[in-house]
Design brief:
Order of helices and strands: EHEHEHEHHEHHEHEHEH
Radius of gyration: 17 Å
Helix content: 25-40%
Bound molecules: 2-phosphoglycolic acid
Distance between the termini: 11 Å
Shape: globular
Number of helices: 10
Largest sheet: 8 strands, parallel, barrel
Number of strands: 8
């Protein structure tokens, strides 16, 4: 099971430092019921993550460009991220799609680049409320998966996160049956694209300690992607142990 934290653009340096100090006290390296924690961090916290040496913890980029180097002011080089020790790449988060206009084909370029460089990729897909109300969940998930995974040779480094946009940061968690249905749709599409039935599908959207174990017990949920509740060590540690 993968329990992933997405810090987004949050936390001051002293807060990040305190987080990991408390984290290392909470988790002095014992194995965590087959769970592993992945932190998607802003680049300025990469050296911090790298210096931690904590067991059961990996870290990754929240965003990276689709080219190695070049005149791309403000972008993150995937090669640099790799050399700095990032193992994971979060791609296609709805905030990137909606606020920064990332298209399916651009997301696909990033997926291909990340896999090519040996990252594990967590590709996010999910519908807006409007799309859900118009009965378009399956179409949206199919399209996002189809686009995001174009020319991707089925592999064991690709992970999917189902994140209904209307549940992100809103406190509204999707109903159990909606999660199960969406995960089934995703599984169906992944199989049709030739991916292994073992390809992990995580859920994200207002996950908190109060609902995490219930969500993890649902059919075909292989982990969680946690935003707000990952910003403090206690709730995130509870989720990791749920
Ligand atoms: P949330 O964010 O847990 O705050 O809803 C999840 C995400 O954006 O990945």
């Amino acid at each position: 099971m993968i329990i992933a934290a997405n810090w987004k653009m949050n936390l001051r340096p002293c807060e990040a430092q305190n987080f990991f100090k408390t984290w290392s006290e909470l988790n002095p390296g014992q194995s965590l019921k087959n769970r592993s924690a992945v932190f998607f961090l802003p680049p300025y916290y990469w050296p911090l993550a790298q210096s931690l040496g904590l067991k059961n913890l990996a870290w990754g980029t929240q965003n990276m460009f689709s080219e190695d180097f070049g005149a791309f002011t403000g972008e993150n080089s995937p090669v640099v991220a790799k050399e700095m020790g990032a193992q994971w790449a979060l791609v296609g988060h709805s905030e990137r799609r909606q606020l920064f206009g990332e298209t399916g084909s651009f997301i696909n370029k990033k997926v291909l680049k990340a896999l090519n460089l040996g990252f594990k990729v967590l590709l996010c897909v999910g519908e807006t409320l409007e799309q859900r109300q118009s009965g378009l969940v399956q179409d949206v998930l199919d399209q996002q998966l189809q686009e995001g995974l174009t020319h991707v040779v089925p592999n064991l480094h690709t992970f999917i996160a189902y994140e209904p946009v209307w549940a992100i940061g809103t406190g509204l968690t999707a109903r159990q049956e909606d999660i199960t249905k969406a995960h089934r749709m995703i599984r169906h599409r992944l199989l049709s694209l030739g991916f292994s039935p073992e390809t992990p599908i995580l859920y994200g959207g207002s996950v908190k300690p109060e609902n995490s174990s219930e969500i993890l017990s649902l059919e075909d949920v292989s982990g969680l992607l946690v935003g707000g509740a990952s910003l403090k060590p206690d709730p995130f540690f509870k989720i990791l142990n749920s």
